[in-house]
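Sample 3 of the quickstart, ligand adenosine monophosphate:
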Amino acid sequence: MELIRTVKAMQARADARRRAGQTLALIPTMGALHAGHLALIEAARAHGDHLTVSVFVNPTQFGPGEDFDQYPRRLEQDMKALEDLGGVDVVFAPSVEEMYPGGQDRQRVWVDVEQLDAHLCGRYRPGHFKGVVTVVAKLFLSCKPHAAVFGLKDAQQFVILRRLSRDLLFGVEVVGVPTVREPDGLALSSRNVYLSPAQRAQAVVLSQAVTAARRLVEQGEQRVEGLVQTMLNVMGQAPDAHVQYAEVVDVETLQPLDRIAPGQDVLAAVAVFFGKTRLIDNAFVRAPGGGV
Ligand code: AMP
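Result:
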Protein backbone atom coordinates (compact mmCIF):
# COMPACT_ATOMS: atom_id res chain seq x y z
CA MET A 1 0.00 0.00 0.00
CA GLU A 2 1.45 3.33 -1.08
CA LEU A 3 0.86 6.73 0.54
CA ILE A 4 0.62 9.48 -2.07
CA ARG A 5 0.63 13.12 -1.00
CA THR A 6 0.59 15.11 -4.23
CA VAL A 7 -1.95 15.47 -7.02
CA LYS A 8 0.78 15.10 -9.64
CA ALA A 9 2.01 11.77 -8.24
CA MET A 10 -1.58 10.54 -7.88
CA GLN A 11 -2.40 11.40 -11.48
CA ALA A 12 0.77 9.70 -12.72
CA ARG A 13 -0.09 6.57 -10.75
CA ALA A 14 -3.69 6.56 -12.06
CA ASP A 15 -2.53 7.08 -15.66
CA ALA A 16 -0.06 4.19 -15.34
CA ARG A 17 -2.68 1.84 -13.90
CA ARG A 18 -5.17 2.81 -16.61
CA ARG A 19 -2.53 2.19 -19.32
CA ALA A 20 -1.91 -1.23 -17.76
CA GLY A 21 -5.62 -1.98 -18.27
CA GLN A 22 -6.69 -1.85 -14.65
CA THR A 23 -10.08 -0.60 -13.46
CA LEU A 24 -9.72 2.08 -10.79
CA ALA A 25 -12.09 2.53 -7.86
CA LEU A 26 -11.96 5.46 -5.44
CA ILE A 27 -13.29 5.58 -1.89
CA PRO A 28 -13.29 9.21 -0.69
CA THR A 29 -13.16 9.72 3.10
CA MET A 30 -12.24 12.32 5.68
CA GLY A 31 -10.33 9.68 7.69
CA ALA A 32 -10.98 8.56 11.29
CA LEU A 33 -11.93 5.33 9.60
CA HIS A 34 -14.55 3.01 11.09
CA ALA A 35 -16.39 -0.11 9.96
CA GLY A 36 -18.67 2.00 7.74
CA HIS A 37 -15.70 3.13 5.68
CA LEU A 38 -14.33 -0.42 5.57
CA ALA A 39 -17.67 -1.62 4.14
CA LEU A 40 -17.25 0.89 1.30
CA ILE A 41 -13.81 -0.56 0.58
CA GLU A 42 -15.17 -4.12 0.57
CA ALA A 43 -17.92 -3.04 -1.84
CA ALA A 44 -15.38 -1.23 -4.05
CA ARG A 45 -13.62 -4.52 -4.82
CA ALA A 46 -16.51 -5.45 -7.13
CA HIS A 47 -16.03 -2.20 -9.07
CA GLY A 48 -12.27 -1.97 -9.49
CA ASP A 49 -9.05 -3.95 -9.31
CA HIS A 50 -7.01 -0.95 -8.12
CA LEU A 51 -8.39 0.71 -4.98
CA THR A 52 -7.54 4.23 -3.86
CA VAL A 53 -8.78 5.48 -0.48
CA SER A 54 -8.55 9.25 -0.19
CA VAL A 55 -8.21 10.82 3.25
CA PHE A 56 -8.82 14.56 3.21
CA VAL A 57 -10.65 16.73 5.73
CA ASN A 58 -12.04 19.23 3.25
CA PRO A 59 -12.18 22.71 4.78
CA THR A 60 -14.62 24.10 2.22
CA GLN A 61 -17.48 21.83 3.26
CA PHE A 62 -17.44 23.03 6.87
CA GLY A 63 -19.40 26.15 7.74
CA PRO A 64 -18.37 28.81 10.25
CA GLY A 65 -18.74 27.38 13.77
CA GLU A 66 -18.72 23.78 12.51
CA ASP A 67 -16.19 21.20 13.66
CA PHE A 68 -13.37 21.55 11.08
CA ASP A 69 -10.74 22.17 13.76
CA GLN A 70 -11.89 19.39 16.11
CA TYR A 71 -12.55 16.84 13.38
CA PRO A 72 -10.54 13.72 14.30
CA ARG A 73 -7.33 13.36 12.23
CA ARG A 74 -5.33 10.14 12.68
CA LEU A 75 -3.70 9.12 9.44
CA GLU A 76 -1.28 6.68 11.05
CA GLN A 77 -4.09 4.73 12.70
CA ASP A 78 -6.10 4.85 9.46
CA MET A 79 -3.14 3.50 7.47
CA LYS A 80 -2.80 0.64 9.96
CA ALA A 81 -6.52 -0.21 9.69
CA LEU A 82 -6.23 -0.26 5.89
CA GLU A 83 -3.07 -2.43 6.00
CA ASP A 84 -4.92 -4.87 8.28
CA LEU A 85 -7.93 -4.93 5.97
CA GLY A 86 -5.74 -5.53 2.91
CA GLY A 87 -6.41 -4.95 -0.77
CA VAL A 88 -6.03 -1.15 -0.79
CA ASP A 89 -3.39 -0.06 -3.30
CA VAL A 90 -3.08 3.66 -2.61
CA VAL A 91 -3.94 6.07 0.21
CA PHE A 92 -4.20 9.55 -1.28
CA ALA A 93 -3.80 12.04 1.57
CA PRO A 94 -3.09 15.49 0.12
CA SER A 95 -2.54 18.64 2.18
CA VAL A 96 -5.02 21.52 2.06
CA GLU A 97 -2.41 23.50 0.07
CA GLU A 98 -2.23 20.67 -2.48
CA MET A 99 -6.01 20.68 -3.02
CA TYR A 100 -6.46 24.47 -2.73
CA PRO A 101 -3.21 26.00 -4.02
CA GLY A 102 -2.70 29.39 -2.40
CA GLY A 103 -5.61 28.70 -0.03
CA GLN A 104 -9.34 28.35 -0.50
CA ASP A 105 -9.81 32.12 -0.51
CA ARG A 106 -7.85 32.29 -3.76
CA GLN A 107 -10.11 29.80 -5.54
CA ARG A 108 -12.32 31.46 -8.14
CA VAL A 109 -13.97 28.49 -9.83
CA TRP A 110 -16.33 26.19 -7.94
CA VAL A 111 -18.81 23.48 -8.80
CA ASP A 112 -22.26 24.54 -7.66
CA VAL A 113 -25.47 22.60 -7.07
CA GLU A 114 -28.97 23.69 -8.02
CA GLN A 115 -32.21 22.65 -6.30
CA LEU A 116 -30.85 19.39 -4.90
CA ASP A 117 -29.41 21.26 -1.91
CA ALA A 118 -32.53 23.26 -1.08
CA HIS A 119 -33.76 20.80 1.56
CA LEU A 120 -32.42 18.33 4.12
CA CYS A 121 -28.82 19.12 5.17
CA GLY A 122 -28.31 21.61 2.34
CA ARG A 123 -30.94 23.92 3.77
CA TYR A 124 -29.16 24.18 7.10
CA ARG A 125 -25.56 24.04 5.88
CA PRO A 126 -25.30 26.72 3.20
CA GLY A 127 -22.31 26.14 0.94
CA HIS A 128 -21.71 22.64 2.32
CA PHE A 129 -22.55 20.78 -0.88
CA LYS A 130 -20.71 23.31 -3.03
CA GLY A 131 -17.62 22.38 -0.99
CA VAL A 132 -18.33 18.64 -1.20
CA VAL A 133 -19.01 18.62 -4.93
CA THR A 134 -16.00 20.81 -5.70
CA VAL A 135 -13.62 18.63 -3.71
CA VAL A 136 -15.03 15.42 -5.17
CA ALA A 137 -14.53 16.87 -8.67
CA LYS A 138 -10.90 17.54 -7.69
CA LEU A 139 -10.58 14.00 -6.31
CA PHE A 140 -12.00 12.57 -9.55
CA LEU A 141 -9.48 14.62 -11.56
CA SER A 142 -6.63 13.54 -9.26
CA CYS A 143 -7.44 9.84 -8.88
CA LYS A 144 -9.10 9.28 -12.30
CA PRO A 145 -11.40 6.50 -11.10
CA HIS A 146 -13.80 4.43 -13.20
CA ALA A 147 -16.00 4.01 -10.10
CA ALA A 148 -16.36 5.89 -6.82
CA VAL A 149 -18.03 4.46 -3.72
CA PHE A 150 -20.04 6.47 -1.19
CA GLY A 151 -22.20 5.65 1.83
CA LEU A 152 -25.97 5.94 1.65
CA LYS A 153 -25.78 7.26 5.20
CA ASP A 154 -25.05 10.60 3.55
CA ALA A 155 -28.04 10.20 1.27
CA GLN A 156 -28.25 13.75 -0.06
CA GLN A 157 -24.50 13.71 -0.77
CA PHE A 158 -24.89 10.44 -2.68
CA VAL A 159 -27.75 11.74 -4.84
CA ILE A 160 -25.88 14.98 -5.58
CA LEU A 161 -22.60 13.23 -6.45
CA ARG A 162 -24.42 10.90 -8.81
CA ARG A 163 -25.61 14.04 -10.58
CA LEU A 164 -22.09 15.51 -10.51
CA SER A 165 -20.80 12.55 -12.49
CA ARG A 166 -23.75 12.65 -14.89
CA ASP A 167 -24.12 16.41 -15.37
CA LEU A 168 -20.39 17.20 -15.73
CA LEU A 169 -19.75 14.13 -17.90
CA PHE A 170 -17.18 12.59 -15.57
CA GLY A 171 -18.46 9.17 -16.53
CA VAL A 172 -17.52 7.86 -13.09
CA GLU A 173 -19.85 5.11 -11.86
CA VAL A 174 -21.15 6.36 -8.50
CA VAL A 175 -21.88 3.41 -6.21
CA GLY A 176 -23.91 3.63 -2.98
CA VAL A 177 -23.39 1.31 0.00
CA PRO A 178 -25.99 0.71 2.77
CA THR A 179 -25.35 2.26 6.17
CA VAL A 180 -23.33 0.25 8.68
CA ARG A 181 -24.80 0.44 12.19
CA GLU A 182 -24.01 -0.30 15.82
CA PRO A 183 -26.00 -3.23 17.28
CA ASP A 184 -28.61 -0.80 18.67
CA GLY A 185 -29.10 0.80 15.25
CA LEU A 186 -26.98 3.96 15.57
CA ALA A 187 -25.28 4.68 12.25
CA LEU A 188 -21.49 4.57 12.55
CA SER A 189 -20.00 8.04 12.21
CA SER A 190 -16.64 9.65 12.92
CA ARG A 191 -18.64 12.20 14.93
CA ASN A 192 -20.03 9.60 17.39
CA VAL A 193 -16.80 10.04 19.42
CA TYR A 194 -18.07 13.49 20.48
CA LEU A 195 -21.12 12.01 22.28
CA SER A 196 -21.27 11.68 26.08
CA PRO A 197 -22.47 8.29 27.37
CA ALA A 198 -25.95 9.74 28.01
CA GLN A 199 -26.13 11.29 24.53
CA ARG A 200 -24.83 8.06 22.98
CA ALA A 201 -27.63 6.09 24.67
CA GLN A 202 -30.26 8.52 23.38
CA ALA A 203 -28.83 8.70 19.86
CA VAL A 204 -30.62 5.46 19.01
CA VAL A 205 -33.74 7.58 18.35
CA LEU A 206 -32.45 8.63 14.91
CA SER A 207 -32.52 5.12 13.50
CA GLN A 208 -35.73 4.35 15.38
CA ALA A 209 -37.39 7.39 13.79
CA VAL A 210 -36.44 6.60 10.19
CA THR A 211 -37.23 2.92 10.70
CA ALA A 212 -40.70 3.82 11.98
CA ALA A 213 -41.26 6.00 8.91
CA ARG A 214 -39.99 3.28 6.58
CA ARG A 215 -42.38 0.71 8.10
CA LEU A 216 -45.35 3.04 7.75
CA VAL A 217 -44.54 3.74 4.09
CA GLU A 218 -44.17 0.00 3.46
CA GLN A 219 -47.61 -0.48 5.07
CA GLY A 220 -49.09 1.99 2.60
CA GLU A 221 -49.07 5.27 4.54
CA GLN A 222 -49.06 8.06 1.95
CA ARG A 223 -49.56 11.21 4.02
CA VAL A 224 -46.19 12.76 4.69
CA GLU A 225 -47.43 14.96 7.52
CA GLY A 226 -48.22 11.85 9.58
CA LEU A 227 -44.84 10.32 8.78
CA VAL A 228 -43.00 13.45 9.85
CA GLN A 229 -45.04 13.58 13.06
CA THR A 230 -44.17 9.96 13.81
CA MET A 231 -40.45 10.70 13.38
CA LEU A 232 -40.72 13.76 15.64
CA ASN A 233 -42.60 11.74 18.28
CA VAL A 234 -39.93 9.03 18.33
CA MET A 235 -37.11 11.57 18.59
CA GLY A 236 -39.05 13.44 21.27
CA GLN A 237 -38.37 10.50 23.58
CA ALA A 238 -34.70 11.58 23.83
CA PRO A 239 -34.61 14.51 26.27
CA ASP A 240 -31.29 15.87 24.95
CA ALA A 241 -32.15 15.61 21.24
CA HIS A 242 -32.68 18.87 19.36
CA VAL A 243 -34.20 18.02 16.02
CA GLN A 244 -32.98 20.10 13.08
CA TYR A 245 -35.19 18.46 10.49
CA ALA A 246 -37.38 15.43 9.81
CA GLU A 247 -38.38 15.24 6.16
CA VAL A 248 -39.69 12.84 3.54
CA VAL A 249 -38.50 13.68 0.02
CA ASP A 250 -38.44 12.17 -3.45
CA VAL A 251 -35.14 10.31 -3.96
CA GLU A 252 -34.37 11.87 -7.35
CA THR A 253 -35.40 15.50 -6.86
CA LEU A 254 -34.87 15.65 -3.08
CA GLN A 255 -37.99 17.84 -2.88
CA PRO A 256 -40.42 17.38 0.04
CA LEU A 257 -43.68 15.62 -0.65
CA ASP A 258 -47.22 16.08 0.63
CA ARG A 259 -48.38 12.69 -0.47
CA ILE A 260 -46.44 9.63 -1.58
CA ALA A 261 -47.54 8.05 -4.87
CA PRO A 262 -47.85 4.28 -5.28
CA GLY A 263 -44.46 2.82 -6.21
CA GLN A 264 -42.62 6.07 -5.49
CA ASP A 265 -39.06 5.91 -4.14
CA VAL A 266 -38.72 8.20 -1.15
CA LEU A 267 -36.16 9.11 1.46
CA ALA A 268 -37.09 9.67 5.12
CA ALA A 269 -34.29 11.66 6.71
CA VAL A 270 -33.49 13.31 10.03
CA ALA A 271 -30.79 15.52 11.53
CA VAL A 272 -30.44 15.94 15.27
CA PHE A 273 -28.15 17.88 17.58
CA PHE A 274 -26.94 16.42 20.85
CA GLY A 275 -25.21 19.44 22.32
CA LYS A 276 -22.92 20.61 19.53
CA THR A 277 -22.78 17.20 17.88
CA ARG A 278 -24.91 16.90 14.78
CA LEU A 279 -26.00 13.42 13.69
CA ILE A 280 -27.97 12.34 10.61
CA ASP A 281 -29.78 9.21 9.52
CA ASN A 282 -32.16 8.17 6.78
CA ALA A 283 -34.09 5.32 5.19
CA PHE A 284 -34.66 4.76 1.49
CA VAL A 285 -38.03 3.14 0.86
CA ARG A 286 -40.26 2.30 -2.08
CA ALA A 287 -43.98 2.78 -1.55
CA PRO A 288 -46.10 -0.29 -2.33
CA GLY A 289 -48.20 -0.48 -5.47
CA GLY A 290 -47.58 1.23 -8.78
CA GLY A 291 -47.38 -1.95 -10.87
CA VAL A 292 -44.18 -3.78 -11.83
P1 AMP B 1 -16.70 10.70 5.85
O1 AMP B 1 -15.32 10.24 6.20
O2 AMP B 1 -17.59 10.89 7.02
O3 AMP B 1 -16.69 11.85 4.88
O4 AMP B 1 -17.35 9.51 5.05
C1 AMP B 1 -16.71 8.95 3.94
C2 AMP B 1 -17.64 8.02 3.26
O5 AMP B 1 -18.04 6.99 4.16
C3 AMP B 1 -18.93 8.71 2.79
O6 AMP B 1 -19.28 8.20 1.51
C4 AMP B 1 -19.92 8.30 3.84
O7 AMP B 1 -21.25 8.27 3.36
C5 AMP B 1 -19.44 6.90 4.18
N1 AMP B 1 -19.92 6.48 5.50
C6 AMP B 1 -19.79 7.16 6.67
N2 AMP B 1 -20.41 6.50 7.67
C7 AMP B 1 -20.94 5.37 7.12
C8 AMP B 1 -21.70 4.27 7.63
N3 AMP B 1 -22.05 4.18 8.91
N4 AMP B 1 -22.07 3.30 6.76
C9 AMP B 1 -21.73 3.37 5.45
N5 AMP B 1 -21.02 4.38 4.91
C10 AMP B 1 -20.62 5.36 5.73
